Every structure is written in structure tokens, then in C-alpha cells.
Amino acid sequence: MSHKTVSRISQSQRSDGPSGGQWRQRNKKQWRTKSKAPEKEVEKEEQILREPVKETGPRGTCQTMCPIQELRDREAQNRLHRFEMVPGTERDRRPWGDPTRAVKEYSRPAAGKDAMKSSDLRPPEVLLKTVYYLIDFVIASPSLNPWTEVYSFAFDRLRCVKQDMIVQRLSGLECLAILERAVRFLIYASYRLCGEPLRLYDPRINDTHLQEYLSWLFDCYANGPGPYPNQEEFQALGLLYNLGSSSTLQHIMELPVRLRKAQSVTLALAINQAYLERNPVRLLRLARRLNFLQACALHRHLVMCRRDLLLIYSHGYSSRNCSFPLDRLAQLLSLDTSHTAQLCQAYGVEVDQNKVAFSKAAFTEPEQGRLLCKSYHSLVSEKQKDLGVKDIIHGFTY
């Protein structure tokens, strides 16, 4: 059966199962229901932070990563994180805080709170130094484990960095450098921690903050003098992460021609077009050209993309006397044959002796929790190769 025939059948048979948009909308609604409280809390905090207090924000004078008074208070209250303790005192009744490792902790903003004191706010150069410390000595540390705890600590401290930036109404090159590294960190975390229990990693919270960082970053690009050497990278990452978003696509189309025609943005646009056309074969083929971090941004869409491919082929090749080579299907899905067979079985597609028997009647949606995205990460993981976490988040891979 020709590719055109499969395409034509897939278009006419979409009504047999939930469309990609319907499926995404339904699951997005379920996800929002489960995580509504944390998301509202984040929105409320950000809204308080953005309330105008003065025409210009206060200027920080704190020259350490953590204000001295806060370090003393948390030390006295036993509220130090183990990553902030003086080595060797972790098991003491009251561990000591290490001024070279302690980082200002995030606290919920409130109207009229003393968080506006200059002595508690870190100026731009100290904030950037803090972010470099978090990346080089915490996030990329080979000795700090588990990485879920590393993420939780870094996420909280980066959130406090953002808080100091907002209060001071920061802009400029330091602000851009911080935002770019925060975006890379959250995109990388969304891939690395995919499938972890919600108590250790909440993808919805991660997504909420990532979208905020992206929005702020793009505002800086749009309103600053430029040119910005990393703008092409982040425009492509934003589109790959938000495939199918009309507002993101509109934002890209309003960019200067120089950016729209840049190689990485052009590739991201092609992948987005394949996504909108529901052409998973082309999307997965184009995805092989992405670098590691771009693949991390795309990875959350891969489960749905592969599901669409199996649904289309279940209709296009549905025949008792027709079989499809397993190795060819594995190539199309960008998986090895064993994971391809597992994926087929999850969707009710029969596999026997390296042959796949597609049937539109047999195709079923897997039970909740049975299909683990992390089991099918090979398209992304193979791109990492020898890249270190520090290089990925600092952007030394380009």
C-alpha cells in the first residue's frame, strides 16, 4: 500500500478514535484537575510579585548568595539543606551553615513584606554568580544524589533568584544570562525526571515556571537593543516545547526574517507543521536532526506522536493477509525492535515473529500508567553522548 493511500485512509478514519486534539485536550483537562491547586498557588505568587510597588524597584546590596541574617536564622532553626552544611557537621544536633554553599531560600511573597529590604536583595552580578554556583557545583555535581533532590534544591533557589530579579525590575545582560540558563535547566529536567513520582517531581509546576521564564526571555529579546547571540536557540526551543500552540507560532512568524530563516528555527517550524498536519512519520524523521536539548524540548510530544503513527497504520494496513516488518516500524518510530514490540502490545497491535499485524478493530488505548514515556527515550538519550550537564545548561554545546 502506497504512502498516499495510507495518508488518505488516515484522514478518513480519524473519527474512529479520538483525534489528537481531542485526546490532548481531554488529558490536559485531567492533568489540570489534578494539579489545579499548585498551579493557582504559583500564579498567585507571581501576581503578587508583579504588583507595582514603585516606579523603579529597590536595588540590592547583599553580596553573598544567602543573606547573613537568613543563614543565621535557618542555622538556629535547623532549616539548612544538607547541600548548605559545613562538611562533617551534617549529623550534628545543629549543623553549621557554610557561607560559601548556602543559597537564599524561596519564601512566598506578600504585600508589604520586608523582602523589599535592600540588604536582603542580591544585585545582578551576585544573582548571576549564584546561578553559576547552582549549575557548576549542585546541578552538575557528580557526587550529589539523588538528582530529584538536586532538582528540588536548585528549583527552589532559582525561584528565589527570579524573585529578587522581579522585585528589582532587572533587565540587561545579566538578566538574559540567568533566564537562558533557567530555561535550559527546566527543559533538561522535564526530560531527565520524566516519569518520577509526583511527590518528587511535578511536571505541571515545572511547565508553569518554564513558560514564565520563556515569556520573560522573549520580552527581553523584543525590547532590548540586541543583537542576542542565543536568540535563535531559544526561539526554536520555545516552539519545539510548545508544538501546536497558535500563540507560539504567531510569535515566531512575527520575528524578523533573519531569525525565521535561521536553521534551527526553520527545522522547528517544519516539525511544528508536521505536528499540526498529524504526520508522525515526517515529524519523527525531522526529529533525528535535532540536537540534544532540542530533543529534550520535543520529547513530551513523542508519546502522542508514536500513538498517532500506530493508529494511522492500524487503519492503513488493516488486513488479515497483510503484515508489516517490525524492523521497518522500529525505524519509523525511532526505537529499537524490542521497545517497538512493547509499544505495539500496549496499543493492542499484534507482533509475531518480527512481523506486525495491524488491525483497526484491535487498536486500543493503553491503561493509565502502563505506558511509561521514560521507557521510550532512546531518540533523545542517544543524542546526549558525552555532553555533560554543565555544558548543556551553560549552552556550551553550540
TrEMBL record:
InterPro entries: SAC3/GANP/THP3 (IPR045107), SAC3/GANP/THP3_conserved (IPR005062). Residues 36-57 have a biased composition (Basic and acidic residues). Residues 25-35 have a biased composition (Basic residues). Residues 65-352 form the SAC3/GANP/THP3 conserved domain. GO terms for biological process: centrosome duplication; spindle assembly. Gene3D superfamilies: 1.25.40.990. Residues 1-62 are annotated as: Disordered. One of its GO terms (cellular component) is spindle. Residues 7-16 have a biased composition (Polar residues). Pfam families: SAC3_GANP. This is SAC3 domain containing 1.
